[in-house]
Amino acid sequence: MGAKTWMLMYAEGDPAEILRSRPVLDRAASEALLAQLFPGKRYKAADDLTLAQACPSGRNILVGCFPGLSIVAADELAIDTPSQLDQRFLDIAAGRTVYLHIMYSVVDWFAYAIWKDGKWQRSLSVAPDGGVLEELGERRPFEAAYWAGAYPAIDPDDDEPSTYPLPFHPLDLGEAALEALFGYQLEGDNGPSLLDPESIPLMAFKPVSWWRFW
């Protein structure tokens, strides 16, 4: 499947700590959040998926509400410039910190953003084709080694000069962001200190057509 995410987290504290506590999924709250974010649309619940699958296709939606943390995954979130996220996703934050994480291995693209009190703190979008697509705010500590060239995408010992537009591979930084912000990885070193994302259930919803055929 490759490493893919397009998800939001609304956190009252440290998302990694909350997830490590094995929180219980609140199904009623998850359904209410779905209705709040996607009004006027009809969905039916499907079999649960997990945090490892926070990249639903088409109009499918994943939602998980836990004490102190809410998670939403939808392809509508996969935008090149995270700072331009639809305002409705921020309006419901109610004082919580909002995290956006997007990673798509097919095109080696990674983006993330953080909002606090409704204002962005950090927004970054990087891909091999365009280099830095967006960069706003101060770089987070977990980014430092990557920007410093500690993990180059191209072997520096190669004879051919590198024209790669970034000092790192976007997916490597994307995995580092997952670990630093949420305490897990998808395809990196999933050691014993890291959370297993498959242990966190998310409710899955599929759209229901309004049309009836007579």
Write a structural description.
With 214 residues, the chain is an alpha+beta fold. It has one domain (4-207). Helix content is 18%, strand content 29%. The protein is built from 5 helices and 10 strands; from the N terminus they run E-H-H-E-E-E-E-H-E-E-E-E-H-H-E. The protein has helices spanning 15-20, 27-37, 88-91, 144-147, 170-182, and strands spanning 4-11, 43-45, 49-50, 61-66, 69-73, 97-104, 109-116, 119-127, 131-137, 201-207. Strands 1, 2, 3, 4, 5, 6, 7, 8, 9 and 10 form a 10-stranded antiparallel β-sheet that branches. The N and C termini lie far apart (39 Å). The relative contact order is 0.23. Pfam families: DUF6928. InterPro entries: DUF6928.
Question: Can you lay out the helices and strands and say which pair or pack?
Answer:
Blueprint: E1 4-11, H1 15-20, H2 27-37, E2 43-45, E3 49-50, E4 61-66, E5 69-73, H3 88-91, E6 97-104, E7 109-116, E8 119-127, E9 131-137, H4 144-147, H5 170-182, E10 201-207
Antiparallel strand pairs: 1-5, 1-6, 2-10, 3-10, 4-5, 4-10, 6-7, 7-8, 8-9
Largest sheet: 10 strands, antiparallel
End-to-end CA span: 39 Å
The total tally of domains equals 1
Q: What are the secondary-structure elements, in order, as H or E?
A: EHHEEEEHEEEEHHE
Query: Over the alpha carbons, how many angstroms does the gyration radius reach?
Result: 18 Å
- Give the percentage of residues in beta strands: 25-35%
The oligomeric state is single chain
Tally the beta strands: 10
The geometry reads as globular
Helical/strand content category: alpha+beta
**Average pLDDT for all residues:** 94
| Number of helical stretches of at least 4 residues | 5
Q: Segments where pLDDT lies below 50 for 5+ residues?
A: none
Helix proportion range: 10-25%
